[in-house]
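Quick one: co-fold with zinc ion.
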Amino acid sequence: MIRIARRLFRVPLHWVALTLLASMPVLAGAPFSFDAAPGRLPKDVVPLDYTVAITPDVDALAFSGVETVRVRVRARVRRLVFNSLNETLDDVRLDGQPAATVASDDSQQLTTVTLSRPAAPGVHTLRFRYRGKVETQPHGLFVQHYTTHAGANALLLSTKMESTDARRMFPCWDEPAFRATFQLIVTVPVDWNTVSNMPVSKRVVHEPTATTTFERSPRMPSYLVEFTGGELAKINALIGRTELGVWAIRGREQDGRTALANAQQILRDYNDYFAYPYPLPKLDSIAVPGGFTGAMENWGAITYNDQLLLIHALSTIQDRQTVFAVQAHEMAHQWNGDLVTMGWWDDLWLNESFASWRGAKETDLRNPDWKWLELQDGSKERAMRSDARVASHPIQQHVADELQAANAFDDITYNKGEAVLRMLEAFLGPDVFRDGIRRYIKAHAFSNATATDLWNALSAASGRDVGKIAADWTEQVGFPLVTVSASCAAAGERTVTLIQRRFLLHGADTSTAHWNVPLRVRSGAAGAPQALLLTADGQRSRAGQCGEALSVNADALGFYRVAYDPATLAANARSFSVLPDGDKIALLDDEWALVLSEHEELAAYLSLATSMGEDSDTRAWTQIAAALGTIEYAERGAAAHDAFAAFARSVIRPMADRLGWDTKDGETPDVQQLRRTLLANLGTWGDAGVRREAQQRYNAFVKDRSAIKPDDQLLVLSIVAQYADAATFDQLHAIAQSENDDTAQRRYYLALMNVRDPALARQAAQIALSQEIPPQSEDSRLQLVLQLGYYHPLLSWTTTTENIDRLLAPYPKYAPLITAQMPEAFWDSVPLGQLEAWVRGRLPAEMSAQIERGLETARARLREKELLVREAGAYLAAPPRT
Ligand SMILES: [Zn+2]
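Sure, here it is.
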């Protein structure tokens, strides 16, 4: 699954400081075994095959069902225990014999069937009728309302099961180790099309409904079951024996052409990479208008929020990038997640880190001019910020129940895991790594696995004890700061002494944590990096010549920080403009983190940030713009604000001037993105020329909507909105209101939320809550209200807290985790005590670890604000002589 953070909180202009963010030790180091796999259900009865027939009644928000489950009884039992939620079971029989009692307990999400006489070991058939609920939030079987281009109200049905919501649609053994085959039979209106994991085997029309029977699935976990039904149409293509389809609302299916072309490419590449051909007869991608925000890797039937799958004339290059990257992530899950599934939710990272890593590699491979892997440094940095908290947690974390399973979908699981896999791949070499992955997939196909199984496969492929290195990163919280001290021999040969300790942004680490750190060392500004495994404290190594640049995190592939001694740092600063981009990025990231953690003065960071010269590397400049933007934000209301804003403008303006406003021939998408990033920041920092140009472009846009290409619309409209008076605000509002394309309309509403005028901002808050937002864009309300906080922290807080249930309704699974993270967004809106009381009042005590993480970030932000104001003041008072 792609979690919501990717989309929801990626605000293109102003990163809202709310990133999706558990901690008993996990039992380390055992291969998968069904009997040893954690879980709540007894393992004496195992499902083999389900036949589930349902007939939804959307008006009544209910459905009726008949379910038959062939089960293997492993030891004589008197009771069958399985999951159910909001369901009533009737006429429950085992092998035709009525059960003695049936008790469903929604508080435990369990049904217990007590048999009239014990069942002997062997295969038995459980059969019952039942009634359940059609959900209005995206979990289980849910109804999704939407407004068509023509303005009509319409609806469809879809499903979202992960982690523990299949039980809302059919009673089942709803844990990932209980693999079984599934056959779905659904009766819906005759003019609907229906999609599930497998192709349709039979359709019987009996007006006004039709009953569709789907082919039986391979053995898989319940959380991958899918059904969508509605007024849908598809386009398709054949790759080998696999039929690829893209489904959308009828009339929109041609907007799936880009996604279909992407899917063809990705399927070919993955068939090759995994050396295990995609095993199902078809693979559909389904664009659900609205629903949950993100995408879900149901085997053979991936569901997407339509904004993450459909591309048309009003889409931007960023939309195209997101579509490819999300497809590459979800399709990677078809192998890692679906074909091979984690044994239990404590290894969720095996699914998610893997799909994130594989998806990013594929996106980069097929779109080299996007510089996609380099841009992943941004998500790695967010994970490092999360993991530099005292209250962070290891990648592998204990999961005892449904709430903890849902809370595992955080930055550490996705982004730290992705970065650690990339670090291991670089260390072992990509070919050896791929060989290990192939062994892993082949050995565990149609089954489950643990992290140990993956490490064993990689060890067999590499001849190294991979588990020993990897465990430091997956079972241990945090990451190290590697301190480099150089000494020089008479002939100028440099020797470095390396020391490590846990890096914390704030607070002292008192643990004895220790990592095997796969370093990549480059001496000088060119040359291939050398692999060096840091195992012992005080380890010494030869490292080129004194006076030349040195990176011990070459190409920024490591998940660790580096602090160089003053002489080495000075050598790096002198050579900065000619360093490889990856080494520049690593230095900028580290120095900024060292400033925030009070290891370095701001001047040390700024001396690098002002030395980019003519290098137009997008990630490096984005890092610089974000750091300057953080300081500008901290300075608001302070005496030195305008002086700092002028300084910040002077740092980025030469590059912005070089790039200009218009795309040049042959310019790659990353440079185009850099232009927008720089102009957006200049606009925010009060650059008169940028404001003027944006206004002129906007004036042309008002007369002719094609005057600004979609890629630049958010940039221009956001700058105009920031400085808008009432008339301009009304005009921007009317533009958003009259737009009937969801993609463009979301963009226009988001721009509107940047308004600075307080009275207009209150109007913007009302708009974000109003019925003019169509039902399929319901998920965008939270993003809109959070964006308001960039200029109006208190208004954003009151609007969010007064409407919290409604804003979180599109995110039923993530609502507790998002709530725990609210202090990260509202650290400067209200006093900490008020924030804490609000969060604790809304969450169970079981979530105290998540709550503490959010509060720790809020405290850190307050401290950093004070620090940055002080340091920036000192810097401006006495800038370094150049
Ligand atoms: Zn995923």
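If it helps, The pocket of zinc ion is lined by residues 1-2, 297, 329, 333, 352, 355 (CB under 6 Å).
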